[in-house]
Every structure is written in C-alpha cells, then in structure tokens.
Amino acid sequence: MAHRNIHYEASFEAYLRAKGWPYVAVDEAKKAIFADVAIKSFDFLVYSAGGPNLLVDVKGRKFPDVGRTRQGGRAWENWITREDVEGLRQWERVFGEDFQAMIVFAYWLQGSPRQAPFDDVHVFRNRSYAYVAMPLGQYVDVARPRSAKWRTLSVPSAEFARRAQDVASYL
C-alpha cells in the first residue's frame, strides 16, 4: 500500500485491497506534464472487469450522525473544484475511451454505521467509511456553481443521494 497522508485516500486504498480489485495508486508527489501543461493528478487507476477502467479522484467528506442531523445538515456534501473537472477531463483524453473519470466520495461516518444510508461500510483505523461514486460527466451535467471565489461546484444533496452509486457498481 502506498504511503497516504490523507486518511480518506488511505481508507479507500485499503478498501480496494480488501475487495481484491486491481488498482494503481498515483504518486501525488509527481506532477504530470503534457504539452508543457501541468495536469492535476487523480488518485487511483482502478481496473474494472465489467466496464471502463476508472480514473478515480477521491474526495473525503464527513457524513453526519443521521440520528442527530437536523434539516440542512451536511449529509451528502459533495463539492469539487473546477480544477478537478478540468484535470480529470484531460486525463480521460490522455487515456482514451477505455477509461472513465470517476469522482469517489469517501464519507467518514460520524455516527453509527447502522443508522447511515450505506449498505457497504468499511472500517479503517477504527473509523467507519462508505464510498459512493459518480462518473465525472454525469456529475458535471447536474452540478451547480457553489462558490465563484473558490471555483467550486456541487450537486444538490437530494439529487446526489439519488444518483450516486456504491463504488462496486462500477467494478
């Protein structure tokens, strides 16, 4: 397993290993340059048995304790940056049609996993995580600007909860 300082990425890598899915961890310390342009790296190349291989960018978010969440809580937080979108689109062009950019949200569950709306929960370093994914193209199609200053966008929570799928459905 690669040395990962970000616990969300480390947990996702442990999850991939536990499931036995073949993958390559991308060395985040090395920037790729094509045509004199630096491209933002993705986190994992995951090989799929049933569809396109995945160029995965992991986004870590906390998922609130649903037993304590009120209206307007931060369940299904899913923002990304425009730089994420631009980089992943470039990588799709570089790798070609057998590869699909995928945003994976690694949710660190703040409450009991039994109360969370996930079927597959992975325990890593005594923390519970769930992983949901959405293809980049689908995400961008339904996303809205979140912050002009930070160049971020997100999908409304209810829409994201309906569309996001367990990572396993893509492998």
Describe the fold and architecture.
- By secondary structure, this protein is an alpha+beta fold.
- It has a single domain (7-165), classed as 3-Layer(aba) Sandwich (Trna Endonuclease, Chain: A, domain 1), CATH 3.40.1350.10.
- Helices cover 24% and strands 33% of the residues.
- The protein has helices spanning 7-19, 82-95, 136-142, 157-163, and strands spanning 23-25, 32-34, 37-39, 44-46, 53-63, 80-81, 99-109, 122-124, 127-135, 144-147, 152-154, 165-166.
- The strands form three sheets. Strands 1, 4, 5, 7, 8, 9 and 12 form a seven-stranded mixed sheet that branches. A three-stranded antiparallel sheet has the order 6-11-10. It has a two-stranded antiparallel sheet with strand order 2-3.
- The mean pLDDT is 90.
* Whole-number total of structural domains: 1
Return the CATH topology. Trna Endonuclease, Chain: A, domain 1
Q: Mind telling me which CATH architecture this is? A: 3-Layer(aba) Sandwich
Number of strands: 12
How many helices does DSSP assign? 4
Q: Mean pLDDT, nearest integer?
A: 90
Percent range for β-strand residues:
25-35%
In helices, the fraction of residues equals 10-25%
Shape: globular
Keywords, please?
about 170 residues; alpha+beta; Trna Endonuclease, Chain: A, domain 1; globular
SSE order and pairing:
Blueprint: H1 7-19, E1 23-25, E2 32-34, E3 37-39, E4 44-46, E5 53-63, E6 80-81, H2 82-95, E7 99-109, E8 122-124, E9 127-135, H3 136-142, E10 144-147, E11 152-154, H4 157-163, E12 165-166
Parallel strand pairs: 5-7
Antiparallel strand pairs: 1-4, 2-3, 4-5, 6-11, 7-9, 8-9, 9-12, 10-11
